[in-house]
Design a protein that fits this description.
This protein has twelve helices and twelve strands. The protein has about 325 residues and is of the alpha/beta class. It has a domain of about 210 residues: 3-Layer(aba) Sandwich (Rossmann fold). It is globular, with a radius of gyration of 19 Å.
């Protein structure tokens, strides 16, 4: 059997980590790029850690030698300096994909869509972002398309999963990692739907797409459906079912964000995303289903249980 090798940028993050682990179980050799591998290397994780900085093209190119797949899942933490760092990071991965003649996969999201896209935009719907991050996301997608390298963008809703990072609404607002769930901080609007994506499902979808390389166009885009919460209450209800009790629901303090912005730069970034909690925007996965036959989907309660356990929000099971 021919050994398949993938390079993952951002393997310590939510998406990158989930994809790296799924690739391993699918039989791939997985390299993971990090500026200081000694801080993260774990012999038990099965990853081949390589020293390198995503901002240095030569280091990414060196790590990609012999790879047929590159997963670009690296982002500046906390949305800091996106406008200055995100595109140069992507250029490094493009250079590596070109040198290795590899397929480059970019995890995308709903930020590229505004109200003009309609309530159920497909993968080829007009991209009319309302936010600075949305415009950067579109610039990333366009750069991939124009680069000429074989590339794929998989867009999904708000991420949640066992290793969700602080950039996720689930772990940054709904629950408090490391704490039992007593209350949920709800950013939604009653009656308005919201789209979620379970990280292991995103990883499974990416791997299935990567393994259909011969059938993919040179530049491909797909949307996931994930878990659609039709009235903005199903995710909270699932959390309550998993913890086995009712949870107190508090409204997210949207009105305080403008006051906090001068002292907390992330407040402005969070405020820009409010439209996704006030309007129902459900990306259509019709193109993905037509290509794969079905979208991988873990049942909601099982996904929430694994997420809460991974975040340390559930008690350890007793051993008799």
């Amino acid at each position: 059997m021919t050994t398949r090798t993938a390079l993952v940028l951002g393997a310590t993050g939510g998406v990158g980590g989930a994809v790296a682990r799924r690739l391993l179980t699918a039989g791939w050799t997985v390299r993971a790029l990090h500026r200081d591998p000694s801080r993260v290397a774990d012999e038990a994780d099965g990853l081949a850690w390589r020293r390198g900085d995503a901002m240095v093209p030569a280091e990414v190119v060196a790590a990609s030698v012999g790879a047929s797949l590159i997963v670009h899942a690296v982002n500046p933490p906390g949305y800091r300096d996106w406008d200055r760092l995100v595109l140069p990071m992507l250029e490094s991965s493009i250079a590596a994909a070109r040198a290795a003649e590899a397929r480059l996969i970019l995890p995308g999201n709903v930020y590229v869509y505004g109200a003009d896209a309609g309530p159920n935009p497909g993968a080829d719907a007009p991209r009319t972002p309302r936010t600075a991050k949305g415009r950067i996301r579109i610039a990333m997608e366009d750069r991939l398309r124009d680069s000429g390298v074989r590339s794929l963008v998989l867009r999904a809703g708000d991420f949640f999963g066992p290793r969700t990072t602080a950039n996720s609404w689930f772990s940054a607002a709904l629950v408090r990692p490391g704490k039992p769930v007593r209350r949920v901080l709800d950013p939604g609007t009653p009656g308005i739907g919201h789209q979620w994506a379970y990280l292991p499902d995103v990883a499974e979808t990416m791997v299935r797409l990567a393994e259909r390389e011969a059938d993919l166009p040179r530049f491909a885009t797909f949307n996931m459906d994930g878990h659609w919460d039709p009235d903005g209450r199903q995710m909270i209800a699932a959390i309550a079912r998993v913890v086995g009790r009712e949870v107190r629901v508090q409204r997210f303090p949207w009105g305080l964000l403008p006051l906090a912005a001068p002292f907390w730069p992330l407040a402005r970034e969070i405020g820009e995303m409010r439209y996704l909690w006030r309007e129902p925007l459900r990306m259509s996965h019709a193109g993905l289903v037509a290509f794969l036959g079905a979208e991988p989907q873990t049942p909601l309660d099982a996904a929430v249980r694994e997420t809460l356990a991974g975040l340390g929000c559930l008690p350890e099971p007793r051993v008799s």
